[in-house]
Each structure stands twice: as structure tokens, then as C-alpha cells.
Please model this.
Amino acid sequence: MNRPAGSLAADQPPRATAAEGARGQTAVVGVALLLGLTVLAVGGLTATAGSIVDDGATSAAATRVGADLATALGPAPSQPETTIELTDGTIRVVNRSVWLLEGEEVVWAGHAGAVVYTDGDHRVAGFAGAVVRSDGEGSRLIAPSRIAPADGSLYVGVPVLNVTGADGIATGDRRLAVTLRTDAETARDTLPTGEYRVAVETATPAAWERHFADRGATTERRDIDGDGVPSVVASFDGPRTVHLVVHDVRLDVGVGR
Model:
């Protein structure tokens, strides 16, 4: 049978034009790019989620350590043993002092010592009866000191640590139990009325300045012993009688229960 002119082209599959071919290649490349971006996005979300989980776990650990330090190192430790469960980070003892000044004269000084936990940018320090927590949002007292004015008096309650055992423990990326064993004796004294100031040596002065301001004091920073660590010096208005309560805490720091 004779075919009319042009009928052969109608029976054969149509051929893609150059433009259609280019569009097809572009579509393939576009799909590949989309898949690549999707993989990157999923990877990014996974990494972000992992970071959030890690930071949440670190923050929760710092909260637990803060509560344990408040229990173990409060002005009157309520139990002789406190076990801190660590999943990461380090815990160490550092030199810190508290001074009671009348004018420029030091009328009492205590080498109080501080127990400091660190994990990344999370830090918790038990010192002078208070617990200070630091993280990406700054530093703040999560357990208050026992330094406060009242009715012409100034109450100064401070634990002074005499430490035995380890002065620093690192977890080495494994779970570790650290036990703080304390045995405290308390001495009380009353100092005659005068113009007193209290100085606390600290690596987180802003937190202590806010704490003392909340208790009606004005503050300044000084490096009293010249070791490079500042002290917050708190002044309370008017002459006051000082009631000084010193808890002599023998502290043993050890691994295990």
C-alpha cells in the first residue's frame, strides 16, 4: 500500500529536539542537586538535634552537681557523705579566701577553698556556703550564701574547707562516682560594733555582686592577695555587730562510693 507523503514520520516515535534534551539534562541535574541538598539538610538537622541533646544532658548534669554541692558544702552540712554521679567533666579543689575587713584592717580571714565542677562551658562552684553556676547565659547563685545584714547586725556564716584526698578528678569520658565526705565543727564569735566589709575571692564576681546588691550592699572589686583572682568587697551601711559563724569542714574527696 502506498503511503501518502509524510506518513512515515507519523508512524515513527518523535525525536527529541535539542532544546528538549537540554531541558531533560537540566531536570536530572536539578533532581540530583535537590537530593544532595536534602541529604545535607537531614545531616544538618541530625547534627543539630545531637548537639541539643548533648547540651541538654550537660545542663542536667550541672543541675545535679549544683544540688549535690549545696548539700555537701552548705554552712552546716546536713549529711556526712554526698556522692556525685558524673558522666563527664572534671571536679577539683581550688584556693579561695574570705576576708572580714574593718576599714582597711583584716579582722578575720578564712582560706575557705572551693569545689569546682566543669564540663565544657558549664561550671558549678561550691564556695563560702554558696553555689554559683555558670554557662552560656552567664553566672548566678543557685544556692545563697549565709552572709546577710539584719537589724544593726551582720551575719557571716562561712564553711572553711580542710581538704584531704584528691584535689582533682577527671572522668575521662566515663561514668564516675565521686564522694565528698565531710566532718564539721562550728565556732561562733561576736565582734564589736563597727564598719565592716566582707570580701569573697571568686572567678565569677558578677554573680556575687548581684547577690550582695540584693542584700543592700554596695560592692567593689579588688585583688586583695595579689594572686590575680578578684575579690568582691561588700559594704553594708552603718555600724554593725558581726556574728561570725565558721564551720571548719574536713573534706575528703575520693572516687567511688
Q: What stands out?
A: Confidence is low (pLDDT under 50) at residues 1-11. The helical segments are 7-11, 18-73, 205-214.
